[in-house]
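Data availability (excerpt). The following record was deposited with the supplementary files.
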Amino acid sequence: MSRGLFDNLGLKLSSLGLAVALWMVVAGEQRDERTLNAPLTLARLPKNTALLNVPGDFVTVQLRGPKSLISGLSPNEIDVNLDLSTLKEGENLIAVKSDQVDVPRGVEVVQVSPRWVRLVVESVTERTVRVAARVEGNPTSGYYFKRASAHPDHVRLVGPRSEVNRLEKVYTSTISIEGRSHDFGVLTSLEPLGKLVKVEGPVHVQVSVEIRANPRPSSS
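Predicted structure:
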């Protein structure tokens, strides 16, 4: 065992000396400070809840460390991770602490701004609502629009409770009936509902549009 320890002893001592020398260079190097906008990562949001507000994508972080190391840092090398697992429904104030900032070895966090982040959390619910076809324009002269039917005629919405409960129905993208004189069908999408509410099920719906001729005036 001792024989293995002393194998290539000269090479090992040279490597150790080089490592010590590098450490001394870094340790003795002039220190500097720099401010970066680091990406903010939100993790571990409680199950079946949603965030109603976005606190921002970045946090301003003031860093201190060896000048050569600080000057070469990019924002992507800094991570600010907020653990949301303890959030309750409603308004929450979360402290942004230095120990939540991941930085390369040798770099220290001097200050973080903002020091608090406001987050509003709400429970997630689901609801089935009617699909309504949205049409625009006028049929050709002598014809009228009778109705438009969507299939499926209902979809299920999932999202924050307040957002889902305010929706009574969902519209399709606008369908033009301008100049039409016959029934027709079209496969179309639903109007966007925002980032927080999602439609579960088919992305597109089939819409059948009925166009009828105007009744002829009675000869009597």
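Summary of structural features: The CA atoms of residues 148 and 209 lie 4 Å apart.
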